[in-house]
Predict the 3D structure of the following.
Amino acid sequence: MANETKHTLRRILRDLKKERKWLIVTLLLAAVTVALTLWVPILIGNAIDKIEGKNKVDFSAVTRILITIGGSVAVTSLAQWLMSIFHNKITYETVEKLRNRAIARVQVLPLSYLDTRATGDIVSRMISDVDQFADGLLLGFAQLFTGILTILGTLLFMLMLHPGITLVVILLTPLSLFVAAFIAKHTYAMFRLQAEYRAEQTAMINETVTNQKVVQAFGHEAESMREFDEINERLSEASRKATFFSSLTNPCTRFVNALVYAAVGLTGALAAIKGPITVGQLSCFLSYANQYTKPFNEISGVVTELQNALACAARMYALIDEPAEVPDAPDAAVLTKAEGNVDFRDISFSYVPEKPLIQHCSITVQRGQRVAIVGPTGCGKTTLINLIMRFYDVNSGEIQIDGSDLRKLTRHSLRENIGMVLQETWIKNATVRDNIRMGLPDATDEQVIAAAKAAHAHSFIRRLPQGYDTVIHDKSGELSQGQRQLLCIARVMLALPPMLILDEATSSIDTRTELKVQAAFQQMMQGRTSFIVAHRLSTVQEADLILVMKDGQIIEQGTHETLLQKGGFYAALYESQFAH
Amino acid sequence: MKKLLRFLAPYKKECILGPLFKMLEATFELFVPLVVASMIDRGIANGDRSHIIRMCLLLAGLAAIGLTNTLFAQHFAAKAATGFSARVRHALMDRIQHMTYTDLDTLGTSSLITRMTSDVNQLQNGVNLTLRLLLRSPFIVVGAMIMAFTVDIKGALVFTVAIPLLSVVVFGIMLLTIPMYRRVQERLDAVTDTTRESLTGVRVIRAFRNEQAETDKFREENSLLVRMQQKVGSISALMNPLTYVLVNGAIIALIAVGAVRVHTGVLTQGAVIALYNYMSQILVELIKFANFIINITKAVACGNRVQAVLESGTPVPDGEAAPQIDESARGTLTFSHVSFAYAGAAEPSLHDISFTAKRGAVIGIIGGTGSGKSTLVNLIPRFYEPTSGSITVDGISSQDFPREALRARIGIVPQKAVLFHGTIRQNLLWGRADASEEALTAALETAQATDIVRAKKDGLDEMLTESGHNLSGGQRQRLTIARALVRQPEFLILDDSTSALDYATDAALRKALRNLPQNPTVFLVSQRTASIRHADLILVLEDGHLAGSGTHESLLRDCAVYREIHASQTQKTGEEVQPDGK
């Protein structure tokens, strides 16, 4: 743990190298600010000492001191301002740089990394962790630094004024920290109870409100309301206690501080009678006593924040430092226009070494052939797609396109030659036109419309509020699942690459439209090597090669007829799925 | 926001006592500088030790009284705030229970959930802070100024200049930055969205070689965000230096004025210190108040959203009492020239639909996605009201029935098979709270769900998790069918609710539905002609229009759309294989 922290810290320092001189300047400015801020009460005390009473005012001295105060205030405020400006500069530029590095890394991370992690987790590393790191670490560090300086400075100044009174302050102030810690410890249980009831209520709200239509359809409103009120009652009570007890911290620490203030007043005033300190110094002491505990309370908050920031930094760096996928070989060739001969030569592949998946598999696909991939759900049909697109690399053997190993081609040129439509539609947050143009960014409007027409998407796009210029979002429900699928098909129809991968590309489209889209696919597949994950019998039957997959393995391959004759898994599948 | 205050009504006492105790505490705090001044002027100047001790005890006493007052204040504030939020949540939930489907569509369930959870929490926090701080800080500022005037009128004039200047700086910066922080949040949301997009679309992005475009888009949004942050930052950075200059400027002026006044003997040294202390108090309170305003702005925004929900929706006229039914017409349902458009939609989803369903008939409804099938059946229980045309039930306009009475006669199986946290039995009893054990068994039998319950260790008392996620889709579907049957409905609506069932189960279910003793009128929505081909009447929908109606045979003959749908599916099942491309 400690080792890890040290590692993260070293990592951070390395990244902040360029900012180092700004950081040092900031810290120097902070030191100036603290010293001058602490000096002002002393000056004010001195000034007060020069106005003892009637006809006992030393005007020239007061004027001198007031001018000094004015100068000091001017310098302090300038330093404070510069400090904030530099601080903002460092923080926000660091955040920007880190996020840009993170997104650049995401684009080259192997899919094996991205597939095994929740999207929300990576998003939070890039967004909130970076924020918390910058806020917590940089701001926290600055606060810690000023806090410690303030405490040390105050102690030093107080000791110079009067060691005895200083001792009173040092002995009494920890009390307020104890009180704060005591209250925090005891409110924790109440907060936990509140959180528990709140979670219970949120779950109930989630379930009920999400399915409100069903609740109403069955006239279950009163029942739901009763259940809700019961939890609501409990939550309210727990919440009242938690709110009350947590709001005790401030008044209680304030009370302790007031006692310190009184004690300083007592010892100070008594000392002032005997004469070792002046009235002005007493007033200075009192203002110190008021300020002295604040940095303590802040520091205890800052320390947790710093720990949190370090944890966030570690999570963020874990993402940024994650090894990228194997880069294209330096001598990688550019695949210009593939013929479409695909050769799997004795390949083996598994996602995790412990669970072997495809072993010693060989497939030969000639240019222009249609390959259907069939099998029960979860049989690993997407694994093949992952390998052809080079989202994953084979463990042994090689896949060749037109005689050259995929790994000896640049990824971009390989992917440029393959058009892919996945069952899971993905729409980019952009206009319809830009979504279709993804594969051919400089396509003309006419080409886009022609592709949309070919995909039978033109009529619904025209009905959208701004037609092809309508901005669509991935999450929002303005397009139906089927319409989204048609858009994805239009993308490929526009790019028209030499090879195709269609993964259940029409699964959400109603059967009548599907029939029309299929006709367009048929036309497109002429002369193009195609890999089709399909549920339609006609597509499977017409394929030149059928790959039957089960549990991640290709267990049979052949044409419809030869496989039926063989009477194996495919024949059984055919019986159960297609024929009634 | 204002209208939400009525939820505080039962806490009138707390709302008055809370701030009152808080102000009492503030009053005692205001005496502190005077006590210190007296300690200096009488105690130190005269060497009066006992006076000093008395004054210090007084300070401690003031602190103790202040603490006691605060405890009361916090107690009242916490009680009022949490009580208030509980009542708001109750009102929200109650409102949601009585929302029409149109309201639910417009507001969106996810936003309703946010309103009920995080918005109400913010609101509770806001009320709590308001009760504690709204009056306290201004009270201290004004109080400190008044106290300064009692100490010395001339010296206090400095305050009348300093306080407005300080207020302008503190509140000016705050007002300037609040909308900017909102922009920062919007830009941060945009960056988050793009990040999410890059991750969820990674395969497509790489397949279409769009990595660079995505990275550029992110960089651009990221730099917009950072620029906005720096802009707000540079304004906020002025706050500390400016207030510091103003306060210390005022103190310099105070000492200068004080020096003259002390010299002429109008003022004592202690009084100058008192004035100086009052100035420090004012600064602390102004900054506290500024933070309070920031919190309150957030709470008010939440409050407005909550109020919008409470006020949303237009009440739809409802039938008074169940009308007298002509028994011979019982169970018939007629649509005549019904059109319907969703709120805010450009085009109607249903155009001029007319048909009659006789008692006990099975009505099949078929069409592509988005053709209006679900919309049509949702009009029957009055989840939505037709935009034009009329629907009659038992020969009487359905709007003359009280909604609840009408719905009690209808069993619905929604498209999304949703069950609720609770036992299977509890879920089935949603259909009819007083259903007998036999009724449950019979419903399960018809729904082909007997084996699901039998396979469970606890049978009917098996616990289901939230939304029934511990069952498969097909199991959930059959249980939701059983739930609707428990009601022994006169009208049964199955909205594409057999999609996860295999062919044999689907067929068995359809057969069982025909033999129900209460002989309900059944509406069967499906995408598959196989599921509805034996219906007494089939309605074919296309883009909200009735493209044809009749039996399977007559539609095959007369309706091109139906023929195409049928052809596209029979091909798949291998019954009539046709070559694809011509």
User: Anything to note?
Assistant: Chain B touches chain A through 155 residues (CB under 8 Å). Residues 146 and 153 of chain B are 9 Å apart (CA to CA).
